[in-house]
Each structure stands twice: as structure tokens, then as C-alpha cells.
Amino acid sequence: MEEDKQSLELGGTAETEILEAEPAKAGAFESESFERSPKMIPESEPETEREESDRWIFKPVSNLAQAFRYAFQGIAYAFRTQRNMRIHLLTTVVVLIVAFLLHLQALEWVALLFAIALVIGSELVNTAIEATVDLASPERQPLAKIAKDSAAAAVLIFALFAAVIGLIVFICAGLRLLGGS
Hints:
Number of domains: 2
Shape: elongated
CATH architecture of the largest domain: Orthogonal Bundle
Strand order of the largest sheet: 1-2
Helix content: over 70%
Largest sheet: 2 strands, antiparallel
CATH topology of the largest domain: Helix Hairpins
Mean pLDDT: 78
Low-confidence stretches: 1-42
Distance between the termini: 80 Å
């Protein structure tokens, strides 16, 4: 009860304070890519505990190699946990082999690579959205469902768009090879 009273006085909820006080327990910063930076905190003292919690400013990853490592960890996570990511990557390998065998022109390569990047990138964003929604709302909520369904729909749109681009490129390249021009 005392915790609820403090929470109301500070303008937040008990859950919010727990998450702010113990981000590692909430699972919010598992990759440790951010840390509190004393250099970035203003010199004046906070007037309330709430102001202190508002001063959580995250230091950006200072090492470029470490930033790439975190990005590759995200790709690896998506590959390990998302069936559709594995399907997209397998499809990518097949598309690249066929493209190589068809001796595509430079603009055809650009179109294929752009489409592949859109699909893989959107699948990664979808994975991030799903993880964020699961963290914020572990129980079933209609808004959480809308967020997840919309993110999945975006991936579907990009995947269909990529398939159409692939068909156009491969049909044109195949006709070019058959026609000898």
C-alpha cells in the first residue's frame, strides 16, 4: 500500500518504478548495449525521485565493432527463433543462385537485392515489434494483437512485392537468354 502511495505521489505506477529501478529484471537491456552515462546527466540535483528516474539517459554504443556485433546478434536471434526468417533466407539463397546462373544485368541485380533487403529488414522489424509487444503486454490484449498482425502484414506486403519483382526479373532474363540477345 505504501508503494502505491509513493507511486501516485510521483506520478507513476508501481510497475513503472520497478522497471525503471531494475531494468535487468524486466529483461529490457539483455544485450547491455546501453548504459547509464554520468557525463550526460545535468549537474543540478534532482528535486524529486521522479526527476532522478527521468534522468536515465543512455550512452550510445561507443565502439563501432560492438554495434555491428549487436546487429548480428539480432539477425542470429531472428534466424534462431523465427521460422519465416529462415524461409526468407533460404529463398534468398535460391534467388541469388538463379540470378547468378541467368547472368543478370546490373539493374536487375539492384532490383533483386533491394527487394531482398526489404523483406529481410521488415522481418527483423517485425521480430522487434513482436518482442516489444510481448515485453509490454505479456497477457493477450486486442491492441497487442493489432500491433503484431500489422507488423506481420507489412512483411507479407514486402514479400509479395519481392516475389513480383523476382518474377519480372527472371522472366525477362530467361526470355533474353532464350532469344539470344
